[in-house]
Amino acid sequence: MKKRALHFASACLALAALIGCTSPTLQVTEVGSFHVGGRAVTLAGLPEKELTFTPGAPPLKLNPNGDFEVESLYARYTRLAHPKAKYPMLLWHGGGLAGTTFETKPDGKPGWESYFLHAGYDVYVSDAVERGRASWARYPEIFKSEPFFRPKKEAWELFRIGDTDSYNTDPAQRTALPGTQFPIAAFDQFTKQSIPRWGTNDAATQAAYDAYVDKVCPCVIVVHSQGGNFAFNSALRYPDKVKALVAVETSGSPNPDTYDFARVKGVPMLWVWGDNIGKFPFWGRIVAAQDKFRGNLIAAGGTGDRIVLPDLGIKGNTHMLMMDRNSDQVAGLIDQWLTRQGIKQ
């Protein structure tokens, strides 16, 4: 009897959303996904090719011409039976990455998706245009440039895991910044998440994010790195639907001299920064630009708060805050801020 009960409990934990089972700590009513945004495209005049799709099968002629759906966004959601938050949380990833940023961490521990579900939020995790399950489109007929890829060295140094020129192909020869919170042994596992990105798809990406907000929200957006620019623009378009915006180490934002801050003054915003920014001039320039943007929001009568983790005595955090060993502590600070904004019941 005990053995049968254990099997049933395991099944419930794995299939809670599908069959209505309940875990001791999380009640889930629905897990689902959808694509949103994008456009129809018709291609013509491209040459046919003959390909063998499966070993042993006869060759088929491939005609690349015809009608296609392109430039949509993919989202997966988990809805709770009794959410504590008034609005769902949308987790938006950064450049060269996808929604996996917020799922299970590279060291195998639960990520921010799990944390915020347990904190009482319905959670949506998306893959932006050109990323992950949002799919690709032909180049140069639709995507206008070739993709580019992030080497491990760039990720190691740009994400402030190690100092400049501290990366080595041999993991044993890499030198991380002292006291880093990133799980170094899982770095190579993390870089398996890296995917190609394009430098010419911002307009399509923005359009898809706007359609996403229009479909799902009112909501809270937690956005990382390159995704910040899209989130600020979506808030500008839908200030009544974006109830709060958390910019986690955002690397970009609209022009603060032309952005209509008065329109978004009712959208409370929070900026979150990790450690060792002063060691990297690139990051110093980014923070200065974001401080100007935040200052303009405050001057317009809005809420523009900031969490600088070292100022709170929290040391060693990298650009990938949601993957660091103390990611739950950082998520807790975000949850507390959202609660103060009246997001939690």
Q: Can you describe what's shown?
A:
This protein is an alpha/beta fold and 345 residues long. It has a single domain, classed as Rossmann fold (3-Layer(aba) Sandwich), CATH 3.40.50.1820. The strands form two sheets. Strands 1-4-6-5-7-8-9-10 form an eight-stranded mixed sheet, with helices on both faces. The longest helix has 19 residues. The chain is globular. The N terminus is likely disordered. GO terms for molecular function: hydrolase activity. This is Alpha/beta fold hydrolase. It comes from Variovorax robiniae. Keywords: Hydrolase, Signal.
Provide key terms for this protein.
about 350 residues; alpha/beta; 8 helices; about 20% strand; disordered N terminus; hydrolase
Question: What's a concise summary of this model?
Answer:
The protein has eight helices and ten strands.
SSE blueprint and pairings:
Layout: H1 2-19, E1 28-43, E2 49-51, E3 60-62, E4 66-80, E5 89-92, H2 112-118, E6 123-127, H3 152-158, H4 187-191, H5 202-216, E7 219-224, H6 228-237, E8 242-248, E9 269-273, H7 281-299, E10 304-308, H8 327-340
Parallel strand pairs: 5-6, 5-7, 7-8, 8-9, 9-10
Antiparallel strand pairs: 1-4, 2-3, 4-6
Helix pairs in contact: 5-6
Task: Please state the overall shape, judged from the principal axes of the Cα atoms.
Answer: globular
- Our measurement of the CA-to-CA distance between the termini, rounded to an integer number of angstroms, reads 40 Å
Number of domains: 1
CATH superfamily: Alpha/Beta hydrolase fold, catalytic domain
Largest sheet: 8 strands, mixed
Enumerate the strands of the largest sheet in spatial order, edge to edge or round the barrel.
Answer: 1-4-6-5-7-8-9-10
Class derived from helix and strand content: alpha/beta
The arrangement of helices and strands along the chain is HEEEEEHEHHHEHEEHEH
How many β-strand runs?
A: 10
| Percentage beta strand | 15-25%
Question: How many H/I helices?
Answer: 8
CATH topology tier name: Rossmann fold
Low-confidence stretches: 1-23
Report the mean per-residue pLDDT as an integer.
Answer: 92
Q: Give the CATH architecture.
A: 3-Layer(aba) Sandwich
The first-level CATH class name: Alpha Beta
What's the helical proportion of residues?
25-40%
Radius of gyration: 22 Å
Protein name: Alpha/beta fold hydrolase
InterPro entries: AB_hydrolase_1, AB_hydrolase_fold, Carboxylesterase_BioH
GO molecular function: hydrolase activity
Keywords: Hydrolase, Signal
